[in-house]
Design goal:
The chain is an alpha/beta fold. It is 41% helix and 13% strand.
Length: 417
């Protein structure tokens, strides 16, 4: 018999743009006993989680709940539920995850129109607004915080332009929710997809989404209830045409928001089996966010960003991308000429237990990405990462201003305290 060793993951300092370290309170919540999915105690926890999500998404929307699966499941659920085959979908792309939105929209049968910006920059909102007026799409889908390039897209005015043209505005806030302001109602966003494993500091496995009445109206037109859940009268109604099936039913069952909302709402119509331990984790993660307070949490992320950036620049390294639109929770660093970026990352992990990320596509091998998100976003982690990076770069023969990085970061903390 093959005897496998006890599971014993090494302690790590995770400074990537996700997944990041998880608060011990969240890990503890995940170890509690399972409740049945229709136990009133459990449905009470589901309702509380929805209430907390509304606060974090800054919305009065009725619908704010998690889809089971990683953040991509939330993205797919929103797009597959809202896009009818043939719908024009406008996707402004400024990095990998914009391309992902376009790809998923295409798979849903959309006529996708993309606007593209060089990676490292963002769109002026007016550019997107003129695109909306020119193309008159049914849906505009875009990324708020593009982790592949570390840029934050300003969203003001885009929601209003969508309403003018009767388009729905859909935003991927996977990497910003819980770390950077995501003002769903103020910015007139019709559907937002969040992520758990980044600024919320919960393991990957759920994807919180929220959407308003405008979005709900569209997905309800496409609603079909599973045959096996229909009452005898409803089934007869479907057979005799009294309950007609829509022209374009939502193509996915698992990711069908019209059915999911019946599971999360008062009807409690059975859909999938809720991922109990993940729900405990999300509830605790949200409780931590609200205990800290959104404004204080955003300020903590900005302070750690300032210290990290000061340290990187004082060391003599260059930041990648347009500084005016840097994401406060991700720093992209140009890999100095002659330095093997992957060897630096490997040494950081093996010698210091610190993980930083590379990037994708055209930026692979050109930049490192350091995340300061959620529980990982701490003074201790920033100082450790700067000290370790300096030591590893010196080992790789890179020219760095030894000692300057940590001192610059400590100066930021001395002023910002
Ligand atoms: C901006 C953005 N969108 C979407 C995703 C996809 O999320 P997941 O890997 O959780 O499915 C990520 C993950 O890194 C992301 O950063």
């Amino acid at each position: 018999m093959n005897l496998y060793k006890d599971l014993s993951p090494s302690p790590r300092t995770i400074m990537t743009p996700g997944p990041v370290e998880v608060d011990p309170r969240v890990l503890r919540a995940m170890s509690y006993p399972i409740l049945g999915q229709f136990d009133p105690e459990f449905t009470g926890l589901m309702n509380e989680t929805m209430g907390m999500l509304r606060e974090v998404f800054m919305t009065g929307n009725q619908w704010a709940y998690p889809v089971d699966g990683t953040s991509r499941s939330g993205i797919e659920a929103v797009l597959v539920s809202l896009i009818e085959p043939g719908d024009a979908v406008l996707v402004p792309v400024y990095g990998r995850f914009g391309h992902l939105l376009a790809e998923i929209a295409k798979r849903c049968g959309a006529e996708v129109i993309t606007l593209e910006k060089e990676w490292g920059s963002v769109f002026a909102p007016e550019e997107i607004i003129s695109g909306i007026r020119a193309h008159r799409p049914a849906i505009v889908a875009m990324v708020h915080g593009e982790t592949s390039t570390g840029r934050l897209q300003p969203l003001d005015g885009i929601g209003a332009a969508c309403r003018e043209q009767d388009a729905l505005f859909v935003v991927d806030a996977v990497a910003t929710i819980g770390g950077v302001k995501v003002a769903t109602d103020e910015w007139q966003i019709d559907a937002v997809m969040g992520g758990t494993q980044k600024c919320l500091s919960v393991p990957a496995g759920l994807a919180p989404v929220t959407y308003n009445d405008r979005a709900e109206a569209k997905l309800l037109k496409r609603k079909v209830i599973e045959r096996g859940l229909l009452t005898a009268e409803e089934a007869a109604g479907r057979m005799n045409g009294a309950m007609p099936v829509p022209a374009f039913p939502i193509q996915s069952n698992y990711l069908d928001l019209s059915q999911l909302q019946d599971y999360w709402g008062p009807a409690r119509l059975n859909h999938h089996t809720e991922a109990t331990s993940m729900l405990y984790a999300l509830r605790e993660g949200l409780r931590l966010v609200l205990e800290e307070g959104l404004e204080r949490r955003f300020a903590r992320h900005r302070l750690q960003e300032a210290a990290l950036v000061a340290g990187i620049e004082a060391m003599g390294l260059r930041l990648f991308g347009d500084p005016a639109h840097k994401m406060p929770v991700v720093a992209c660093i140009e890999i100095p000429g002659g330095v093997d970026g992957e060897s630096v990352r490997a040494m950081l992990l093996s010698e210091f237990g610190i993980e930083i990320a590379s990037s994708f596509g055209a930026l692979k091998g050109r930049i490192w990405r350091i995340g300061t998100m959620g529980y990982s976003c701490s003074k201790r982690n920033v100082l450790l990462a700067l000290g370790a990076l300096e030591a590893v770069l010196l080992r790789h023969g890179a020219k760095v201003d030894a000692g300057a990085g940590l001192q610059a970061a400590m100066d930021v903390y001395a002023i910002g305290r």
